[in-house]
Amino acid sequence: MKLKIINPNTTAGMTAKIGAAARAVARPGTDIIAVNPAMGPVSIESHYDEALAVPGLLQEIAAGERAGMDGYVIACFGDPGLLAARELARAPVVGIAEAAMHVASLIGASFSVVTTLDRTRGQAWHLAERYGMKRFCANVRACELPVLELEVPGSNARQRVLDECRRALAEDGCDVIVLGCAGMADLCRELSQALGVPVVDGVAAAVQLVESLAALGLHTSKRGELAAPIAKPLRGLLEGFTLPSQDPLAA
Amino acid sequence: MKLKIINPNTTAGMTAKIGAAARAVARPGTDIIAVNPAMGPVSIESHYDEALAVPGLLQEIAAGERAGMDGYVIACFGDPGLLAARELARAPVVGIAEAAMHVASLIGASFSVVTTLDRTRGQAWHLAERYGMKRFCANVRACELPVLELEVPGSNARQRVLDECRRALAEDGCDVIVLGCAGMADLCRELSQALGVPVVDGVAAAVQLVESLAALGLHTSKRGELAAPIAKPLRGLLEGFTLPSQDPLAA
Amino acid sequence: MKLKIINPNTTAGMTAKIGAAARAVARPGTDIIAVNPAMGPVSIESHYDEALAVPGLLQEIAAGERAGMDGYVIACFGDPGLLAARELARAPVVGIAEAAMHVASLIGASFSVVTTLDRTRGQAWHLAERYGMKRFCANVRACELPVLELEVPGSNARQRVLDECRRALAEDGCDVIVLGCAGMADLCRELSQALGVPVVDGVAAAVQLVESLAALGLHTSKRGELAAPIAKPLRGLLEGFTLPSQDPLAA
Amino acid sequence: MKLKIINPNTTAGMTAKIGAAARAVARPGTDIIAVNPAMGPVSIESHYDEALAVPGLLQEIAAGERAGMDGYVIACFGDPGLLAARELARAPVVGIAEAAMHVASLIGASFSVVTTLDRTRGQAWHLAERYGMKRFCANVRACELPVLELEVPGSNARQRVLDECRRALAEDGCDVIVLGCAGMADLCRELSQALGVPVVDGVAAAVQLVESLAALGLHTSKRGELAAPIAKPLRGLLEGFTLPSQDPLAA
Amino acid sequence: MKLKIINPNTTAGMTAKIGAAARAVARPGTDIIAVNPAMGPVSIESHYDEALAVPGLLQEIAAGERAGMDGYVIACFGDPGLLAARELARAPVVGIAEAAMHVASLIGASFSVVTTLDRTRGQAWHLAERYGMKRFCANVRACELPVLELEVPGSNARQRVLDECRRALAEDGCDVIVLGCAGMADLCRELSQALGVPVVDGVAAAVQLVESLAALGLHTSKRGELAAPIAKPLRGLLEGFTLPSQDPLAA
Amino acid sequence: MKLKIINPNTTAGMTAKIGAAARAVARPGTDIIAVNPAMGPVSIESHYDEALAVPGLLQEIAAGERAGMDGYVIACFGDPGLLAARELARAPVVGIAEAAMHVASLIGASFSVVTTLDRTRGQAWHLAERYGMKRFCANVRACELPVLELEVPGSNARQRVLDECRRALAEDGCDVIVLGCAGMADLCRELSQALGVPVVDGVAAAVQLVESLAALGLHTSKRGELAAPIAKPLRGLLEGFTLPSQDPLAA
């Protein structure tokens, strides 16, 4: 099985970390291809960043379909471009926020999300609503930690994340922690040991879910909203995103 | 990995079919132990049946914990006893309705459930609400098919399920079908081929999800609502369900 | 009118207290039969306890129907087995959580529930949702009081309940208190006097509601989800729960 | 016990019918005082009618409090002025839509409301939402029957209501019928016999609920939103509605 | 364009202030007619007050329709009589709570309402739900300020409103403030400057929205629930509210 | 006042029509600048199209801020990029779906949306939820009409839209129609005349709402989620979207 794990920002170090987290949980025989787009922002911390990360992400999905991938993970907690990616791909696509929230709802009564910047909390709540997971979401908490600070050796990022998780358990009445950033994937095990409750990393969770969908022979439904996009001209800088008019995906 | 797949009714033929469906999707190296309780109703088609299926189910969970199972599937679409089972087990427990609905929400815009008797539709809607999946559930449809008729060779059950799936696609605007009974597990592939949309069988989906949770090292949170039950005397016919007062699960 | 008040746990002292609370508010001419099952847990403080209290409860309902009861109260705040009991009975069945919440919504803008153990709060919220009462429920608060401590003379249970009620009024913005345990029935009057707001005990409320339904000539609808369960064999320890195949309830 | 049943329109014939329905279910010893205001519309079929029925209704509540009533029923399915009445009264106040919906939710899985004019359906849905009963309400159906036609001997009103109830059962999947107008109170028994499912009349239901609240010693909470209104001058035509500045209700 | 701004209480000083706020934002060429009814309470701080403010308000709407108004604003944050007014008028009618909440949802992620008395908070939440704005409403906060104290020169009302706004920003996570009383209209600009976030006054917002509806050629739909009320007799003190039986509005 | 109306697709003919619709309702003195991006798809009929329309749209917003625009309209019924645009702009930004739904909720009890392709219905429902307008939305209906067919002289597009509006009124119980595509702006008046109910075009509605926000002196809140995006490098094809690191918008 070949899975493409797409870090939608353009920071290669983070892509490497995400790839390692994916490989650590992938089934034997699964080939993890971790990539990031050639275009777009170095980190995703706003709706603006997210919007501009999506074209590069879609390019990776389209290339993946041509290369016969068996599934995709969108490895940013805002799950940017998820529905557009599902239109483009027949193979299943899972976002890491989606994966983490679904998994958390299977092992506890409620979870708190611990994320980076306060300004991204709205998007996490929005996704919880879209996925039906709002009823399990006790709180979304920010550490006021820029995404890329998680990549800086020697920063106090780990400690701040741990402290916020402790506050979540003490104040929110939750019994599971969801990590709210792909850049926290490497903290999952130590947080879980320190906290004594399950801690869910979306990258690992999404890898497992996509593998499961593929193993079940399930693809994205091509009936209705998620059918292949209608081929049509694109202009200007984005001309290259024009889909072939005899769209092989529609077959 | 050892997974216990519990058919909560006492019909051994159905247990065998469920076991086969589980084994067909299990990972190499996963040992599927398909069982049904020694006590309880031969099929589950009412709240009464469901209530009386739960003690036997819990007995199987308790025995499974003593035997070191890595996870459990509750293989009845009403997901009977799910929260009580989660209290009892540290290993993850997933219900087939829960699994099928979650999986369906990852591959389409909305699903319709096709189930057996009209009187069970309320429970399916209730579960959709509890799991946050109501927003993805276009409809719950019944074939007015008693559960055990699915076990009768030569019955027209297959055709009636197929017809109801066709009505779902034509009238509900859904793009995925969820099979609403463990006894339909063997119909999944042919229905999917006939309908041209993804069809989700909860048994297979639940096996994949439990394997995923176990592979992620995630167990049921023992903090709060799902902590091990407080040991206390049980009386009369159910005396045997008294938990040991030094409960090893609480550790 | 003959009403059966079923304490679903097997602690006779609590049954006696519940019976007294029921008789204190029953109409002249109403015969209160307070019972507890012969089988099951001594108190109900988990999903496990609740699941194992239900068979004994259903046995009492079935016996009640044979004896011509005019209605039933399920006297545990988790309302265990309510829908199964409604299937089994033609006479109306009311749970005490259900009764208390409905009554509270008629006399105030919002209520807080004060219950026993923190781990049971999830079930109270779940019931509030099922009954449509979530919008009136300001909070569910636990005193961390084991159910049977309410039965111990000289314990500080009364004071702890009173203190938690005071916190509810101060912090939740509620204007009514709902007592979250059948074992608190005898505290209702004194709490109301101490707090100066209406305090609702579910046992008394449920007796009034069942009497009202009976007086209105209303029975449980036997059309659809709550029709009599389909008769079928039960096996093993629960064989005795097999319903007669010519089910007189279905008539 | 003295209960005031207030028909908020000014049609005395309808008041008499409502009074009879109330007396038919009241407990022995309950004194039913059925009244209608001296001012306001002859029937209530719009928001305009409802708004202008409220002052007269509130006058009856205020007079009732001075006369020491033990409870009130607002006998119009729009439940006009319910919260204002609760502010004014210490004794409990119940609306007939509220009562009917609550009662219906205790005896079935879902109800359909059968009401008079199509234009009043929005208000019925609105009340279902306010009372938390929307989840039990399968449909609100209109017979396109003006309220006062129910008072005309020899009209085909009875038949039209029966026909609409039959359609509700056939099309809505409900198992209980709620009558959506106080003027239908006298049809309840015959409809129930013809339909074979429980039919709930709000007038009878509300009498039972108010009697229950009074028997439980429960009054409207005077803490917060429903406290007695602050006394202040009213001007012009409504000057007479000025409350005494030393408001005895506030005590 | 002629707009009638109706202060539904009978305090002329407040009407003048509201009129000034309306004129300050009205388009050139818009004629603002600010009025208050001749009958009703001097301020609106309870459901009782609100109910008794509505007849006078409706009288002003009816007179407005005869005078050919192009639109109406109901200038009290409880939006009393809104649906009845819409039945009566063909020209658009907007309430100030409705206007403020809609506008706030267009410029921020969430708003807090700062209002007068604690007892009116329930009505503000109720309106937020009715208008679909509950998801944007972070909190409703009261200053415990009687409405007419806002009219008293030299009171500390301004400071108390400002303090509560500051608490809202610090504690609620909102990014917009909605003023919860027509009597606060004159504070909007200075609060916005002091707080550094948008502050929305409903009077100004409603004037803009009604002007917009009129400019778009949109009137209240006369199909269904908001069609002109059916003409019928009114009795007693309210006889004058009888609509002409040949209702010109229905045409 | 200078308003920029952005058609997010690259079809200039449609931009001209949208500009004309905007000018037809703009206030005297408002300067309407109708534009479309230089890059992106020729029409927006999928999540893919929408994602690829957003960069060009954001470029227009950024240019607009530099040019001192007083407000923006996003003239596509999917409201693409709305939150990213709000981050980028201090001046108010309104989407046409948002505007049309809000306006419709002020003049009727419920609306139906009549849109182009069936596959876009999910997005319309999603927006209705996000804006709180789901409770007013009776239905979203598609004519199976490609967006650009609305631009073809002599097509039967007008008739198909009219027919679908008629079905909406007959079957959905709505009292207002919302046009679900910017390309239908020119049909609004004739549809309204043919149907006899208010018909809302989002382009006109959005122009009015943005003018209103600007007239009220309200800008997008720059506190929290909608604050200016954090400046950071963008790579590759989208390098030009890098914001200046001394972001003047953040001040």
TrEMBL record, chains A, B, C, D, E, F:
Pfam families named in the record: Asp_Glu_race
Record family assignment: Belongs to the HyuE racemase family.
Source species: Azohydromonas lata
Organism superkingdom: Bacteria
Name this protein carries in UniProt: Aspartate/glutamate racemase family protein
InterPro entries reported in the protein's UniProt record: Asp/Glu/hydantoin_racemase, Asp/Glu_race, Hydantoin_racemase-like, Iso_Racemase_Enz_sf
